[in-house]
Specification:
The complex is a heterodimer of chains A (218) and B (254).
Chain A: H1 11-42, H2 48-62, H3 66-76, H4 86-112, H5 115-123, H6 128-158, H7 170-181, H8 184-213
Helix pairs in contact in A: 1-2, 1-4, 1-7, 1-8, 2-4, 3-4, 4-6, 5-6, 6-8, 7-8
Chain B: E1 2-11, E2 14-24, E3 29-33, H1 40-47, E4 55-60, E5 63-64, E6 67-70, E7 73-76, H2 79-86, E8 89-92, H3 104-114, H4 120-133, H5 149-161, E9 167-171, H6 179-195, E10 199-203, H7 207-213, E11 216-221, E12 224-229, H8 231-236, H9 241-253
Parallel strand pairs in B: 3-10, 3-11, 8-9, 9-10
Antiparallel strand pairs in B: 1-2, 1-4, 4-5, 6-7, 11-12
Classes of the chains: A mainly alpha (218), B alpha/beta (254).
Amino acid sequence: MIAIPPPFDLLPTLWRGVGVTVQLTLFGSALAFGVALIIGFGRLSRFRLIRLLATVYMELFRGTTLLVQLFWAYFVLPHFGVEFTEMQIGVLVLGLNYGAYGSEIVRGSILAVPNTQIEAGIALNMSPWQIMRRIILPQALLMMLPPFGNLLIELLKGTALVSMITLADLTFQGTLMRVSTLRSLEIFSLVLIIYFLLAYPLTLALRLFERKMAEGRS
Amino acid sequence: MVRFHRVSKSFGDLEVLRDINLEIAPSEIVAIIGSSGSGKTTLVRMLMTLEKPTSGTIEVDGELLWHKKENGRLVPADEKHLRKVRSKVGMVFQQFNLFPHMKILRNVTEAPIHVLGLSREEAEQEAISMLEKVGLGDKLDAYPSQLSGGQQQRVAIARALVMHPKVMLFDEVTSALDPELVGEVLQVLKEIAAEGKTTMLIVTHEMDFAREVADRIVFIDGGRILEEGPPEQLFGNPRNQRTREFLSRFRRTI
């Protein structure tokens, strides 16, 4: 076996955690996006009850800490006979939590489309649904992209908390190795760098996507 | 074609239109003039179903717009009824209100495809010939932001025309334009008027234009129709004192 010079000998073990972190980010953000749309639209509903429920949801998830939500799902839910894998809990809690933040982005962006656009749609006799789907949403989505990009990066970094419920992500592998090797400096420097290497391409990709979407518009 | 019967409109405590009675014949061209805040824009916005009258009724092509008859009684119209009657009306706005995320061609085909149910080919064919008519056949692939104000407004006119409304509303369509771009838009309006197929309601500050194309001028002041008549009479020999004041002030400022 070829010996890998330090600190890179740490990489194979850390690498195992990267897979979990990426998985959490992907599924967590997909769920968060779905939740954000549903709750965001719910907050704009014509019906008071739906508005109320959506607001309660948003305030509840924004107003309590992500870590305790994870603990709650991990330690308390089993008492009610609900059992998930650690990965499922991680995705669920991250998605529900960041979705609550995302719902404000959705709501704000939809409200930011000028009313005159709706009037133009009415003047063309479009249905309320067509106006939403063909006029408002495409414009709102463009406005959502930068704040959603931020939120995605936040979520990626937030995944580190799942190490507290023994999910073997990048942070978890790092802490595990610290205990066994005591090489804290190398381990946590590497972990930081890896997080950055995950986040930065995301930022770049989002910026590119945003530019593509905004083509022709000023 | 259009009939306002005792229509009033208030925003909160502010009464912007009071007891409006107005009838417009098929293919008649009516210009509505009056100072800002007189209520003339609100009048056409009610016809486009963008504002709901506080009282009174509006008929378009023999059908009530904001109401429908149920067992002989008038009840407020539902969305379905509104859409049915609204299909007879089209509108061009002061600020163009093109869809910024769509190219020019799609701005014009979107409603014919999704509201009228035309095929893409049919819709594009008609959109292209309509855009050529307003002199923009070479801008199909541009985005609205790449066009001048006058060009955007001509697209907006084409977009409204492909829906074949029986009544077209023009709400100060040249007010947001640089002076040198006003002419090209008025020219398009004149061409539509000359075809004589569409009933037109034109809210405008362009007095010379109104005088040239309109069959009738309606002067609104303080939420009421103070005077109406053929252009020669209303401009040449206004009966009402307020009309005279308005017109003379206008001549001075121009």
